[in-house]
């Protein structure tokens, strides 16, 4: 399908398109992690899914590089990666806030209860102290609300995604363009 011309799509457009897929993928990671306390098999599954994020962004950026016949500059690839994480993060943050606010409003409290329980049962000498700190934080209403949690999650996704995109952009360009991809 490639007739030797660049697609002319901006990195923002490509990032938005890839971000839709990444957003769904991040939602799967969120739910696998959220339900890992109930279904322990989801814990290693979520780790494998998390490890797949760099593979996804590499493949996405590589596809753009090949489509443009190896002429995509580093900053364009990097911006596409940042846009991918931004748009994917927005989708994931939106889904997570809906889940924590309307579907399972006790989610954060249940996680805090589990954290306190684990710290209280730990053989670690500071475990009980940490459980007390978390309990006091709850009493002082310092535990983030679902919207705050989701916004923090979005910031984490975009920040870590921008660093990962930089590294994957370098890797994509280092691998070069092979003309047999035409």
Summed up:
With 182 residues, the chain is mainly alpha-helical.
The whole-angstrom Rg is 20 Å
User: Any idea what the shape is?
Assistant: elongated
Which percent range fits the helix content? Answer: over 70%
Unreliably modeled segments: 1-5
- The string of secondary-structure elements, in order, is HHHHHH
The SS-based structural class is mainly alpha
Distance between the termini: 8 Å
Mean pLDDT: 91
Largest sheet: none
Count of β-strands = 0
> In percent, how much strand structure appears in the residues?
under 5%
Number of helices: 6
Oligomer: single chain
Number of domains in the coordinates?
Answer: 1
Tell me what the structure shows:
The chain has 182 residues and is mainly α. It has one domain. The protein is built from six helices and no strands. The chain has helices at residues 11-34, 42-67, 74-103, 107-121, 127-139, 146-175. The longest helix has 30 residues, at 74-103. The termini are close together. The relative contact order is 0.16. The model is unreliable at 1-5 (pLDDT under 50).
Secondary structure topology:
Blueprint: H1 11-34, H2 42-67, H3 74-103, H4 107-121, H5 127-139, H6 146-175
Task: Supply database-style keywords.
6 helices, 182 residues, disordered N terminus, elongated, single chain, mainly alpha
């Amino acid at each position: 399908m490639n007739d030797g011309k660049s697609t002319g799509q901006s990195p923002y457009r490509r990032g938005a398109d890839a971000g839709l897929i990444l957003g769904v993928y991040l939602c799967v990671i969120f739910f696998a992690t959220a339900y890992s306390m109930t279904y322990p098999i989801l814990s290693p599954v979520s780790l494998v899914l998390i490890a797949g994020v760099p593979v996804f962004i590499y493949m996405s950026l590589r596809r753009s590089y090949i489509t443009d016949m190896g002429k995509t500059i580093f900053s364009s690839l990097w911006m596409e990666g940042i846009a991918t994480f931004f748009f994917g993060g927005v989708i994931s943050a939106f889904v997570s806030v809906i889940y924590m606010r309307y579907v399972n409003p006790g989610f954060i409290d249940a996680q805090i209860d589990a954290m306190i329980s684990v710290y209280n049962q730990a053989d670690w000498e500071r475990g009980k102290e940490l459980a007390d700190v978390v309990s006091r934080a709850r009493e002082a209403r310092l535990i983030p609300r679902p919207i705050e949690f989701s916004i923090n999650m979005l910031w984490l996704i975009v920040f870590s995604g921008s660093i990962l995109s930089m590294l994957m952009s370098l890797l994509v360009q280092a691998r070069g363009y092979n003309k047999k991809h035409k």
